[in-house]
Write a sequence for this structure.
């Protein structure tokens, strides 16, 4: 069985160099093209899917739809889950990265960006729309370090993906830089101090193969 991970194509926030987190931004035209090309690559490799997952943020949903359409698989069932959302960057959300470096220094900003245990400055209140209304408010963070992202992604894998793999299904997972880094950490047992070595480029398929008990065989 195969699982393909794909980070969304270039977003408006990537282009304008600000932290996005749970902010819901769309793709640039370049990002849409990247997603389509990823789908063409999957088609050329002959990979077919039975189920697809995306976060509840439009940049992954648009990417997922483009990948499925370009690979002639738009009919595949798509489930959206907040557990695949990007890391919640707290007070950094919507702020230009260069501005934060000038204000707090490069070293501190790097800790906020890449620190496994160090969260960003928390927001006092989240201003989210009704897509999160059904969630227990205690699940919704006001800022996250990487460890917290791992803690919410792993249950998604165990509860939703593993049963499908054991049922011999192929799966597409479209996520964000940090939610996919968290998943890669778990799947490959990467030490937390080595998470900087995990690179998740925009719209580049990462392919894993599993046996019938959902044990990892190899990363293609």
């Amino acid at each position: 069985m195969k699982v393909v991970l794909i980070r969304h194509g270039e977003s408006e926030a990537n282009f304008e160099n600000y932290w996005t987190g749970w902010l819901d931004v769309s793709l640039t035209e370049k990002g849409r093209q990247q997603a389509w090309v990823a789908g063409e690559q999957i088609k050329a490799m002959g990979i077919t899917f039975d189920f697809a997952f995306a976060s509840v943020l439009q940049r992954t949903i648009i990417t997922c739809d483009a990948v499925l359409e370009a690979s002639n698989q738009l009919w595949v069932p798509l489930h959206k889950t907040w557990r695949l959302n990007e890391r919640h960057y707290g007070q950094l959300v919507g702020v230009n990265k260069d501005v934060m470096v000038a204000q707090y220094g490069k070293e501190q900003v790097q800790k906020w960006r890449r620190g496994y245990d160090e969260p960003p400055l928390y927001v006092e209140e989240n201003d989210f729309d009704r897509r999160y209304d059904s969630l227990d408010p205690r699940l919704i963070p006001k800022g996250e370090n990487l460890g917290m992202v791992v803690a919410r992604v792993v249950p998604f894998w165990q509860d939703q993906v593993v049963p499908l793999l054991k049922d011999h299904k192929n799966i597409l997972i479209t996520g964000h830089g940090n939610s996919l880094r968290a998943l890669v950490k778990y799947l490959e047992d990467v030490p937390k101090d080595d998470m900087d070595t995990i690179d998740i480029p925009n719209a580049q398929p990462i392919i894993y193969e599993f046996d019938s008990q959902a044990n990892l065989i190899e990363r293609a």
